[in-house]
Amino acid sequence: MSTSVLIIDDDQSLCELLSEYLEGEQFTVECKYDGEQGLQSALTNEYAVILLDVMMPKKDGFEVLKALRAQKMTPVIMLTAKGDDFDRIFGLELGADDYIPKPFNHRELLARIKAITRRVAHLTQNNSHLQLEIHGLILDMASRTVCLNNHPISLTGTEYEVLYQLMKAAGEVVSKQTLCQSVLGRPLVAYDRSVDMHVSNVRKKLAQHSSHTFIKTLRGSGYIFLTA
């Protein structure tokens, strides 16, 4: 499993601090200081995680993420301004796996990175023969692919894990707290809409190939994957 991290941020001092810290935690770190160079590296190399700032020269973080998601599903953690809900929600809509507001605690960032790498390891181990199929929707753990009515569905790693958690508990309510902990590796906190946005993204992608309602929201309780 890759332990390489790409940091795309024009704050060179921050990049140096993060590099030193993450390298001390056995990660290999590469830094790019503008969106164009960052995107080029993201598209041509393989990384465990990309840390992507929003405000940058040449291409902002949203432009980089949109272009990246057209070709690759490398996990992305957006670095957003503290309290800027628009940036967080927009980043999640474009396919970011998670976000962390600046200024942040390095240990919290490390926890987010490790949560993503653990999730990837979980999806690739001990699931080689598992396939879930409901209403023409097939989730194959061996190939980590999703198809709906013979159409491939392109999901980010986080969206894939959300769908997996809901499908394996089909017919049962899965709380937002459970999804947040199992998918993002952290407890749900007030006003955190990450899980909602990931579920919304999955719904939109499934709706492109079927009129069937797969995921129902139970207000105040969570989500249920419908079996009928």
UniProtKB/TrEMBL annotation:
<dbReference type="InterPro" id="IPR001789">
    <property type="entry name" value="Sig_transdc_resp-reg_receiver"/>
</dbReference>
<keyword id="KW-0597">Phosphoprotein</keyword>
<dbReference type="Pfam" id="PF00072">
    <property type="entry name" value="Response_reg"/>
</dbReference>
<keyword id="KW-0804">Transcription</keyword>
<keyword id="KW-0963">Cytoplasm</keyword>
<dbReference type="Pfam" id="PF00486">
    <property type="entry name" value="Trans_reg_C"/>
</dbReference>
<feature type="coiled-coil region">
    <location>
        <begin position="106"/>
        <end position="133"/>
    </location>
</feature>
<dbReference type="InterPro" id="IPR036388">
    <property type="entry name" value="WH-like_DNA-bd_sf"/>
</dbReference>
<keyword id="KW-0175">Coiled coil</keyword>
<dbReference type="InterPro" id="IPR011006">
    <property type="entry name" value="CheY-like_superfamily"/>
</dbReference>
<protein>
    <submittedName>
        <fullName>Response regulator</fullName>
    </submittedName>
</protein>
<feature type="domain" description="OmpR/PhoB-type">
    <location>
        <begin position="129"/>
        <end position="227"/>
    </location>
</feature>
<dbReference type="InterPro" id="IPR001867">
    <property type="entry name" value="OmpR/PhoB-type_DNA-bd"/>
</dbReference>
<keyword id="KW-0238">DNA-binding</keyword>
<keyword id="KW-0805">Transcription regulation</keyword>
<feature type="DNA-binding region" description="OmpR/PhoB-type">
    <location>
        <begin position="129"/>
        <end position="227"/>
    </location>
</feature>
<keyword id="KW-0902">Two-component regulatory system</keyword>
<dbReference type="InterPro" id="IPR039420">
    <property type="entry name" value="WalR-like"/>
</dbReference>
<dbReference type="InterPro" id="IPR058124">
    <property type="entry name" value="CpxR-like_REC"/>
</dbReference>
<feature type="domain" description="Response regulatory">
    <location>
        <begin position="4"/>
        <end position="117"/>
    </location>
</feature>
<feature type="modified residue" description="4-aspartylphosphate">
    <location>
        <position position="53"/>
    </location>
</feature>
